[in-house]
C-alpha cells in the first residue's frame, strides 16, 4: 500500500522532507545480519564431519581428503565464476561493490525506526537498535573491497542533511561488500549441466531478501520436487 504523506509521517516520525510516494511494507522485519547468520550456522556446525554415499567431491579448503555427497551447491556470491568457469559452466555474474555507513544514534526520536528508501539518492536506511545503517552505491571496480573516500564522505553528508541532530557523525563506521550481479538482475538458481552440481547466485542487492526463498527452492530441486515459485530455474 502507498499511504499518504501524513500517514507516512505517522509511521515514521523522523521523516522531515515531503515525498510524492511512500510505499509501506507492514509485514517487513529488520533483524541485524548476525541473526540469520547465526541461524544458518547452527545446523552447519551440527552437520560438521558427516558424509553420505554418492559421488566423490573434493573437500573444502583446509579439509583433508574428500567429502562424499550425492550433490553439491555453489553459493559463493560474486566468486561463483571463479569456481564454475574452469569446469565449463557459464556464470554471468559480476561484483558490484556496495557501501554502507553505520552511525550510533544520539537521539532516538530523530532517527528512523523503520527501513526507509531514498530513491532520489539510491540509498536505504535501516535502524538496528541503537545504530542507523545507510547503504547504497554500485561501484564496478573488480573484486577490490577498498573504500573510496569520496563515496564514504558523500554518504555521511547525506545522512547529516537528513538527520542532522540524531546521529553521531564522528563515530561512523564504513564497510563495503561485493554484490553478485547479473546483466538482467535475475539470479541464477538451479542445476548446471553437471547433473549433481547446483548453482545459487546472482541476487544482487537482494541477497538477504531472497536468500531463504532461493535456498528453499534449491532444496526442492535437490529433492526432486518442483519449487513453488514461478521462476526460470536452471535444469527444469
UniProtKB/TrEMBL annotation:
GO cellular component entries:
cytoplasm; plasma membrane
Q: Which example biological process does GO assign this protein?
A: D-alanine catabolic process
The record, for Pfam families, names: DAO
- Bias category Basic residues: which stretches? 8-19
Chain intervals for the UniProt region annotation (Disordered): 1-62
Stretches of Low complexity bias are at 35-46
Q: Which domain of life is it from?
A: Bacteria
Q: Where is the FAD dependent oxidoreductase domain?
A: 66-221
Q: Where is the composition biased (Gly residues)?
A: 50-62
An MF annotation (GO) of this entry: D-amino-acid dehydrogenase activity
Q: Which UniProt keywords apply?
A: Oxidoreductase
**Which family does the record assign?**
Belongs to the DadA oxidoreductase family.
Protein name, UniProt field: FAD-dependent oxidoreductase
- Recorded source organism is Achromobacter ruhlandii
Amino acid at each position: 500500500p502507498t499511504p499518504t504523506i501524513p500517514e507516512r509521517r505517522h509511521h515514521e516520525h523522523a521523516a522531515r522532507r515531503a515525498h510524492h510516494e511512500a510505499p509501506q511494507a507492514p509485514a517487513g522485519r529488520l533483524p541485524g545480519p548476525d541473526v540469520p547468520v547465526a541461524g544458518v550456522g547452527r545446523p552447519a556446525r551440527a552437520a560438521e564431519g558427516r558424509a553420505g554415499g554418492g559421488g566423490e567431491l573434493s573437500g573444502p579448503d583446509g579439509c583433508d581428503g574428500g567429502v562424499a555427497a550425492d550433490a553439491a551447491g555453489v553459493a559463493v556470491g560474486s566468486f561463483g565464476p571463479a569456481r564454475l568457469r574452469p569446469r565449463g559452466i557459464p556464470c554471468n555474474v559480476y561484483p558490484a561493490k556496495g557501501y554502507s555507513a553505520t552511525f550510533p544514534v544520539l537521539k532516538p526520536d530523530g532517527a528512523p525506526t523503520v527501513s526507509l528508501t531514498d530513491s532520489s539518492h539510491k540509498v536505504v536506511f535501516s535502524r538496528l537498535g541503537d545504530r542507523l545503517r545507510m547503504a547504497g552505491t554500485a561501484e564496478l571496480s573488480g573484486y577490490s573491497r577498498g573504500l573510496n573516500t569520496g563515496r564514504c564522505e558523500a554518504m555521511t553528508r547525506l545522512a547529516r542533511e537528513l538527520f542532522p541532530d540524531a546521529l553521531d557523525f564522528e563515530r561512523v563506521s564504513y564497510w563495503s561488500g561485493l554484490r553478485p550481479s547479473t546483466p538482467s538482475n535475475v539470479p541464477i538458481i538451479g542445476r548446471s549441466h553437471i547433473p549433481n552440481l547446483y548453482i545459487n547466485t546472482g541476487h544482487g542487492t537482494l541477497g538477504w531478501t531472497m536468500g531463504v526463498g532461493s535456498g528453499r527452492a534449491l532444496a526442492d530441486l535437490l529433492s526432486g520436487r518442483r519449487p513453488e515459485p514461478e521462476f526460470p530455474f536452471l535444469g527444469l
